[in-house]
Amino acid sequence: MQRVHILSVWERSCQLVIEIHNHIVDDINTDLGQQLSTTVIAVSSQLAQCYEEQKPCADSLMTANGFLGQLNAHIELARQTAMIEHQVAHHWLQEIKTLQNLIGCLLPQDTPPPHPPQHYPV
Questions:
Q1: pTM, full prediction
Q2: What's the total number of domains in the chain?
Q3: CATH number, domain with residue 70
Q4: What is the pLDDT along the chain (122 residues), one digit of tens a residue?
């Protein structure tokens, strides 16, 4: 049953990939366009990997959720720099929240929180 839910979340993430790529087609070669493209594809990729795994895939789900956080930041930056319109950004940000909620429902209840980033001395 969970595989069916993962598949539906993956399909929804693919729709976001299509929407973003159709919208940024003229800006795809800019740094921000590349970041948007790479990050949104990474979300779908992690969800596909989770679907293909036969065992619980909490790591892939948590990674996808992390990429959604990055995508959120990239969309905010694109909105602030007028690469995308406010209304479009709002729609994508709402979709990110929905995907994060759906992924959260797929995570096992005993999944530990992600490890904080390691800080290395400079």
A1: 0.84
A2: 1
A3: 1.20.1440.60
A4: 577 889 999 999 999 999 999 998 888 888 999 999 999 999 999 999 998 886 768 899 999 999 999 999 999 999 999 999 999 999 999 999 999 999 999 887 765 555 444 444 43
Tokens of residue 112, six digits: 């530990």
Distance of CA 90 to the CA centre of its chain: 15
Residue 115 burial (10 A CB sphere; 0-12, 13-18, 19+): exposed
Q: How many CA atoms lie within 13 A of 119 on its CB side?
A: 1
Gyration radius of the chain's alpha carbons: 15
Dist CA 29 CA 33 (whole Å): 6
